[in-house]
């Protein structure tokens, strides 16, 4: 049973990146697995294979003092965001603990000081009590035997993910950020903390950067799993996850959000209030805002030679509601063209901040242009509506011109449909978009005679994930009627 579950790890383990041209180490960590195991026992069985193994293997210890203490600590952090952050704290503690030969658990209490990651989430007295009981759990449960037994299978899983995720060129990342990263190490989370999240750490030149993983347990291929930093919402993109972690690290060490650019903080506040439709502005701050947008902007440069990937990152910005993103891509060229002046992305941040500070002055215009692009409607149809058609052939070609270019990655559906129901009948499956403003498709003459009308809907994946209909007034199909020739 245990070997079977470990084999599944090759499928469901969160992805690990191996970066071209750099030293990359991928490993599991006993301290991290110990902390994750206690978390699973304290918070119930998550819907993951590994957590079910934990519950089965350590079921007799669900009322152990270490588990009960962590359970109480978790209940005190009932707010969802805090609980998620706790899932970063615990593996971090796992990395920091020292496990002695006799199973004693040691820990540097300096990690509880202000400015460290554990501050103010764990206090000294609580930590001492927890570490004492954790050592007892470690010895009584024979956790070390459990961990060692999985070593061979863990290595196979790690190697599999190294093969799958060997597609990020770190020299490009270094070039874009102006960084000089020499070594990247990923800590593999063998035991996930919940169905949604696992929390590994990536070490960049020895410095740990926390990253969340957004995991759907129903997906069965590792390419569906990818990292993203705690500050980022991107749950399906390893490049964005890494760029976010590195960008946030750069900004927190070299730039301060609240200085250097008059009006920047106020501008972000106005942007969030007036436009960012997909943002939870109640808890939003400047660093949230920038750490969501900037990695997408940087990824566009990374993928400048890959039109498909570039379009995906532009779409991500559209989903977030960043209406200025496409113009910002052009603005970023000054950074890439003048690298003698701007050695790192931090050097260019005053320009970006000034750019953002100006946006509220033109947001109404930008929003109007953006909304127009998001709601195309038919401006002409040939054959025209309510005209007599020659139906002597097997099919009729229909050409529709739109007010705006149809966005890439859109799906066009031609059929009969009511607004709140699934399609009653699909009338055409083959179509072409010769110039993004024009839709061409053929409909069988028999169908046209029997039905006499058809509808078109464009389905696009944008912010708020709403369907965009051709007619913005009725929010339904534009209906074209035939008058068959008698």
Task: Annotate the secondary structure layout.
Blueprint (H helix, E strand, L loop, with lengths): L1 H11 L6 E2 L2 E5 L2 H14 L5 H9 L7 H12 L3 H17 L1 E2 L5 E2 L17 H17 L2 H7 L1 H14 L3 E2 H8 L5 E5 L9 E2 L2 E4 L2 E8 L11 E4 L8 H17 L9 H11 L11 H17 L4 H14 L4 H7 L1 H5 L7 H30 L3 E5 L5 E2 L5 E8 L8 E6 L8 E4 L2 E2 L5 E7 H7 L1 E7 L18 E4 L1 E2 L2
Parallel strand pairs: 1-5, 2-6, 12-20
Antiparallel strand pairs: 3-4, 6-8, 7-9, 8-9, 9-10, 11-13, 13-17, 14-15, 14-18, 16-17, 18-19
Walkthrough of the structure:
With 486 residues, the chain is of the alpha+beta class. The chain has 3 domains: 2-229, no CATH class; 255-374, no CATH class; 378-484, Sandwich (Immunoglobulin-like). Helix content is 45%, strand content 17%. It has 17 helices and 20 strands.
